[in-house]
Amino acid sequence: MSNSSRVSKPRVPRLSAQRAVARKLALQGLYRWQLNRCPWQDLMQDFDAAEDAPKADREFFGALVRGIVENEAQGDELLTAWCDRKASELDPIERAVLLIGVQELRAHPETPWRVAVSEAVSLAKRFGATDGHKFVNAVLDRAARELRPHEH
User: Fold this and answer.
1) Other C-beta atoms within 10 Å of 75: how many?
2) Domains of the chain from N-terminus onward
């Protein structure tokens, strides 16, 4: 078979890459949600319109966003216990990143704790304040010790 007769298949991103894009879109949606409250279903519509949506794991995005929005009080209570201040006093980017990390640690045991923490730190480096990623790392390390003691 010659090279010219081969048909190349469209490249499908690996699951980890799809989940990384879903986390980024979740961060953007949760940032918006903190500034302008709306039902989680509205965030799903925003996801569908996002340029990166075809590269993302839609189910994972939905699970993160729905879990965070529906359990906001519990997520904030946990964050407050692991932070040096109330969750409501956190920068909206850091709060969203931490909520994503905590939700992933709590509800997605298929994701190793180190991956959940690393992905959150990467988001904080990319979108947060200069040293915000250090704070995110410290808080999620505490969270992982408590939520996943068998892995830590």
Assistant:
1) 21
2) 13-147 (1.10.940.10)
Q: Report whether 67 contacts 107 (CB < 8 A).
A: yes
Q: 40: closest CA among 65, 75, 73, 72?
A: 65
Give the angle 76-80-82 at the CA atoms, nearest 5°: 120
- Which tens digit of pLDDT belongs to each residue from 41-90? 999 999 999 999 999 999 999 999 999 999 999 999 999 999 989 999 99
Instruction: Give the count of alpha carbons within 13 A of 11, CB side only.
Output: 4
Is residue 26 within 8 A of residue 61, CB to CB? The reply is: yes
Residues 6+ away with beta carbon under 8 Å from 20: 119, 122
Q: Report the amino acid identity of residue 44.
A: M
Is the per-residue pLDDT at 6 higher than 60?
no
